[in-house]
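Q: What structure does this chain adopt?
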Amino acid sequence: MITLTQSSIKEVKNLLAKKQAALGSGLRLSVTRGGCAGMQYVMEVDVAHEGDDTIEEDGAIVHVSQDSFEFLKGCHLIYEYSLADSGFKVQNPNASRSCGCGTSFEAKGEEGTYDPADDCK
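A:
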């Protein structure tokens, strides 16, 4: 289960309204290989796909694909407000470490298996 904070609920709803998202659309939160720590978070507005885990809370909808769920279970999706770096952040108990910007992480059990230089080959 992924937990949404009040700030993330508010901003997911704002994002969907701003994008004039189709009925049933939500913020898709997924994980792909890449980034400086091995795995990176990807967020986009999208409709639900077969097999997705969908979280609905107070009008905010978040879709998580089946292949990303193991990396995201137990996460907290928050929205931080700051002058320099406002945006969605993921507090992830499945990360053994995260990069400084917070968009990339190394998954527990995969420590040392990723070399960012491999993406350049």
